[in-house]
Amino acid sequence: MTLIRDLDSSTLAHLVGNTAIMAAIRSEIEKIADTNASVLITGPSGSGKDVVAQLLHQRSRRAAKPFIALNCAAVAPDLLESEMFGHEAGAFTGAIRARPGRFEAAHGGTLFLDEVGDMATAMQAKLLRVLETRVVERVGGMLPIAVDVRICAATSVDLFAAIDRGVFRSDLLYRLDVIRIEMPSLADRIDDLPILIQHFTSRQPRDRGTPPIRFTDAALAVLMAQPWLGNVRELKNFVERAQAHFPGAVIDQGDLSKLLRIAIAPRPIAKPPVTLGEGFIDLKRILTDLETAYITEALAATGGAVAATAKRLGLQRTTLIEKMRRLHIGVA
Ligand SMILES: Nc1ncnc2c1ncn2[C@@H]1O[C@H](COP(=O)(O)OP(=O)(O)OP(=O)(O)O)[C@@H](O)[C@H]1O
Ligand SMILES: [Mg+2]
């Protein structure tokens, strides 16, 4: 199952980045790793929240004990309780054998509650109680089981807004949010892009003898101007794609169009002022009037030069002439 990732101690979490903001995050992690205080990691998708949670565990005294991750959004709400706290045999249909939950599995180590904002409110109340008592009860069980876990939670949604909407408990937020680590978007630390690329290219599996791909300065400049809405995850996928298309190559600006595909942000739509009013809207008429007005103005601006007007309006010359005929626009 992908929701549970017991960390292989040989894979060290790498939090790459030289910007001041990343240096501050790294030193914060060092400072708090050995405390038992709960940590809430916020930040947009793909910004490195998982990496921080793993690093926090690896830098703590709990490192030799388990790191257990549970994605609260990936488990069906009615199964989440047994996933977290375990169940006894016969607790519900299908519960053939007793099974410890993630809290017990993480005993002595770290429990990473990912996408904690997606938890149903009834479950939030149960989690809160466990965080206060440090004792779990399996579903269908009677025995309280003491657990020693460091809680680390992550969210990509704004939990304060979720509280305002009544879908997240404020008392649970304060329990989780003892120490907060806010991950910046990649755009907010874009100077880290070259070093991140270097990190990913050096770690990409390659055929033996093929050198890592490299990017020219001009290409890097273009990449640094991209929006990277998917943050580091999107950059990592991009590097993988580049490596597959151009193994071992030096990639220049001109090669990027093949690789950047959807990475380019959609152009914002210019929104004209619209008054709807009450009754029927003669959209055809409005569009015809608008078209007539733009063509007339553009023709006036070019002194009636049809070719120049067509270019200005992004039309073929013949298309413009056809429109002028249809709209009865003459050149003065
Ligand atoms: N600072 C970093 N250094 C190196 N790799 C990073 C860094 N940040 C993120 N990554 C890599 O980018 C990918 C996405 O990161 P991660 O899974 O930690 O993001 P996330 O914030 O947890 O995203 P989501 O909200 O979607 O769960 C992973 O492959 C991770 O290894
Ligand atoms: Mg994550």
In a nutshell, what does this entry contain?
The chain has 14 helices and 11 strands.
| CATH homology superfamily of the largest domain | P-loop containing nucleotide triphosphate hydrolases
Bulk shape:
extended
Task: Report on the biggest sheet.
Answer: 5 strands, parallel
Count of separate structural domains: 3
Work out the helicity level: 40-55%
Write the element-wise H/E pattern from the N-terminal end onward: HEHEHEEHEHEEEHHEHEHHEHHHH
End-to-end CA span: 74 Å
CATH first level of the largest domain: which class? Answer: Alpha Beta
Classify the secondary structure makeup into a structural class: alpha/beta
Poorly predicted regions: 1-10
With strands numbered from the N-terminus, the spatial order across the biggest sheet is 2-5-8-1-9
Average pLDDT for all residues: 89
Task: Give a verbal description of the structure.
The chain is of the alpha/beta class and 332 residues long. The protein folds into three domains: 9-182, 3-Layer(aba) Sandwich (Rossmann fold), CATH 3.40.50; 186-258, Orthogonal Bundle (Helicase, Ruva Protein, domain 3), CATH 1.10.8; 264-332, Arc Repressor Mutant, subunit A. The protein has helices spanning 20-32, 49-58, 77-85, 102-105, 121-133, 159-164, 170-176, 193-203, 217-224, 231-245, 256-260, 283-301, 306-313, 317-326; strands at 39-42, 67-71, 86-87, 99-100, 110-114, 135-137, 144-146, 150-155, 179-182, 214-215, 250-251. It has a five-stranded parallel beta sheet with strand order 2-5-8-1-9. Strands 3-4 form a two-stranded antiparallel ribbon. Strand 6 (135-137) and strand 7 (144-146) form a beta hairpin. Helix 13 packs across helix 14 (317-326). The protein starts with 19 loop residues before the first helix and ends in a 6-residue tail after the last helix. Residues 1-10 have low confidence and may be disordered. It binds adenosine-5'-triphosphate (ATP) and magnesium ion.
